[in-house]
Design a protein that fits this description.
By secondary structure, the protein is mainly alpha-helical. It has five helices and three strands, in the order E-H-E-H-H-E-H-H.
């Protein structure tokens, strides 16, 4: 695991927020992490899911990875479905 350091070193944030764990966007563990945070946030959108993830983790190209997971979420797809038109 890699931890990212930087300008936040002297901030008053908790240590896990100051130095988040860096994850690749195409790893199975990252996908499970995104799915878990998406469900914990009660199937919230991309921004809310990203905020929840970024408190402890930094995912490379996270926005694209989260969008991909949310688009494939069966619960979100059912709720956002368009009615049948003739």
């Amino acid at each position: 695991l890699l931890r990212m350091g930087g300008r936040l070193r002297r901030s008053t944030l908790p240590p896990e927020s100051k130095h988040p764990i860096i994850l690749p966007n195409n790893h199975p563990v990252t996908e499970l992490l995104i799915k878990d945070h998406h469900v914990r946030q009660m199937h919230a959108g991309v921004n809310q899911t990203l905020v929840a993830i970024r408190t402890r983790f930094w995912i490379i190209r996270a926005r694209n990875a989260v969008k991909k997971i949310i688009r494939s979420c069966p619960v979100c797809r059912r709720v956002e479905a368009q009615p049948y038109r003739l």
